[in-house]
Amino acid sequence: xxxxxxxxxxxxxxxxxxxxxxxxxxxxxxxxxxxxxxxxxxxxxxxxxxxxxxxxxxxxxxxxxxxxxxxxxxxxxxxxxxxxxxxxxxxxxxxxxxxxxxxxxxxxxxxxxxxxxxxxxxxxxxxxxxxxxxxxxxxxxxxxxxxxxxxxxxxxxxxxxxxxxxxxxxxxxxxxxxxxxxxxxxxxxxxxxxxx
Length: 196
Prior knowledge:
The protein is mostly beta strands.
């Protein structure tokens, strides 16, 4: 379980394919505090630490994860939004984030708005996911509030701190991102489907 509050930006040190799996070696400032078997969200994708060495750790993404997220497009030197799992008793400063990406989306617009930025994203609405204005959304692991919401698009406003301390500063029009929709909204949508 995560909060969507990014702790640090990590860097992909190496990538190694083994069968349909992808082993990802990451350099991060908190590596020395990690333990094997610990969960870390990488651009919103929950992966398990499998090895540690100095300031580097390794995780493995399976085919299912690679097919449903943007992790298959990583290259050496790619930056990742990183968050360790929340501890029971901590404040929930973002919202409840599972680290289970629902689908990807494409950035269709980036507009600077006198000290903040508005990012707009388009997604495949046929998968049944929805956003609502003032609702929660997780983009590449970052907990955000929806500003505008349409059938297959939504916008978020990014403050300078978030822009500077996450990978939003390098996100451009046409880039693909990972989306996790609000878990409460997903349950309500599913219950509504079952009752109709």
